[in-house]
Amino acid sequence: TDIISRREETYHRGIKVLSREEESTGQVSIHDREKGISREMAKYLAYDQYTHTTLLEHFLSPSTSLSDFQSGSLTWLGTPPHKRVYHSMVSEERDSIVVSLVTEERVGNSLLEIKKEIRAYSHKPELGYEYTLVNKGQAKISFLFVVEFCFATSGEPLVFKGRSVKVAFQHPSLKIEIETTPETEWWSFPVKTLSQSSRGFELIDQGLVYLPHLKVSLEADEVLKFQIKERITNLAGPK
After folding, report:
1. Residue 215 and residue 63: Cα distance in Å, rounded?
2. Cα(112)–Cα(59) distance, rounded to whole angstroms?
3. 57 forms bridges with which residues in the sheet?
4. Strand ranges (DSSP E) for the chain?
5. Residue 147 and residue 108: Cα distance in Å, rounded?
6. Alpha carbon distances (Å) from 204 to 159, 169, 191, 192, 193
7. In Å, what is the CA distance from 52 to each residue of 6, 7, 72, 181?
8. Sign for the pseudo-dihedral over CA of 183, 96, 233, 50
9. How do 141-151 and 36-37 pair as beta strands?
10. 100-135: per-residue pLDDT in tens?
11. How many angstroms separate the CA atoms of 130 and 55, rounded?
12. What is the Cα–Cα distance from 209 to 63, expressed in whole angstroms?
């Protein structure tokens, strides 16, 4: 799923972040009232370097945090995910169609081979994703490997560890479960844009991002496999 990313708008220029005193007393000039936003709202005045979409791979410094994603201040060790180019091949098996993607790129001071296999099943509402990362260089490399999932729903920032997460939607009969092997760390945050209307500034929910991630260290020729399953659960059929 693609979701609207955060871009600078003309009306963002000249915005004033109100002080704690101005917020509590309401004693603000007419001009500042028109251009003023709360300190809480100011947290969402951030811009993205890429379009949020599902199955983007990020190779980042191991010190990267959730706040770096929230603020849009990412520095990639390899190719930015929206500029990565894969060689692709499609094959058909008895119960599934498989799309195989492969590329190589410099990550840190070594060469990393990235293989991504996407499997769509004919008999069940599930997609399978398998990543194979191979250090093709001579030097050890360390990085944070993040796979991005985006959904048109709302939620709050989360940090947790586990095998799976269930994503709820406005429609009560629809849930999506994401399961990883091995167990991994997860981040989640809502993408909100600051909009201006006749009522003033307001936050608009654009989507929810989930980020399962692993801290990885690979010696020369070492291989990492990471599997993800995405399945639709609790989907009510036609009556």
Report:
1. 9
2. 10
3. 147
4. 16-17, 36-37, 56-60, 87-92, 96-107, 110-121, 126-135, 141-151, 158-168, 175-197, 200-218, 223-233
5. 18
6. 22, 17, 9, 5, 5
7. 9, 12, 11, 23
8. positive
9. unpaired
10. 999 999 998 999 999 999 999 999 999 999 999 999
11. 11
12. 20
Residue written as token pair 């949020």: 52
Nearest to 233 by CA among 105, 109, 127: 127
Distances (CA, A) of 72 to 8, 28, 76, 133, 134: 12, 30, 12, 26, 28
Question: Six-digit token pair at 64?
Answer: 């990267």
pLDDT for residue 195 is more than 70: yes
Bridge-based pairing state of the strands 175-197 and 36-37: unpaired
pLDDT tens digit sequence for 223-236: 999 999 999 886 55
pLDDT at 197 > cutoff 80: no
DSSP state of 55: T
For the entire predicted model, the pTM comes to: 0.87
The three-point CA angle 3-59-168 to 5° equals 35
Pull the structure tokens for residue 9: 């708008």
The residue assigned the tokens 């917020």 is 23
Tell me the longest C-alpha to C-alpha distance in the chain: 70
Query: Which residue matches tokens 């194979």?
Result: 132
Alpha-carbon distance of 63 to 71, in angstroms, equals 15
Amino acid at site 112: L
- Identity at 188, one-letter amino acid code: S
